[in-house]
Amino acid sequence: MLGLEAQKVIGMRMVRIAWGGQAGQAELQSMVSEKISAGLEAFGTLLSGGSPEMVVERYREHVAANVERLTKS
């Protein structure tokens, strides 16, 4: 499910980036910072004894938040 949900975000982000301008630049910066933050969060979850399933569930929450944000604007 995560892969399918992420595809929607990827598509919406690519459109925003392709339009360029301030919104495109902001999306690029957001994308990079979100990836770093999510990776660190996943690493911390696993180090503290969390399961891969917990990591995937949290990634799904991040993806859902991005879908909501990108469909509002």
Offer a quick outline of the entry.
By secondary structure, this protein is mainly alpha-helical.
Q: Specify the biggest β-sheet.
A: none
Instruction: Kindly state the percentage of residues in helix.
Output: over 70%
Overall pLDDT: 95
Q: Provide the succession of SSEs.
A: HHH
Strand % is under 5%
Q: Which structural class matches the secondary elements?
A: mainly alpha
Ends apart, CA distance between termini? 24 Å
| Count of structural domains | 1
Q: Tell me the overall shape.
A: elongated
Strand segment count: 0
Question: How large is the count of helical segments?
Answer: 3
Rg, rounded, reads 13 Å
The residue ranges in which pLDDT falls below 50 over 5 or more consecutive positions are: none
Provide a descriptive summary of the structure in words.
The chain is an all-alpha fold. The protein has one domain (about 1-70). It has 3 helices and no strands.
Key terms:
mainly alpha; 90% helix; elongated
Question: Which helices and strands occur, and which strands form pairs?
Answer:
Layout: H1 2-19, H2 21-47, H3 52-72
Helix pairs in contact: 1-2, 1-3, 2-3
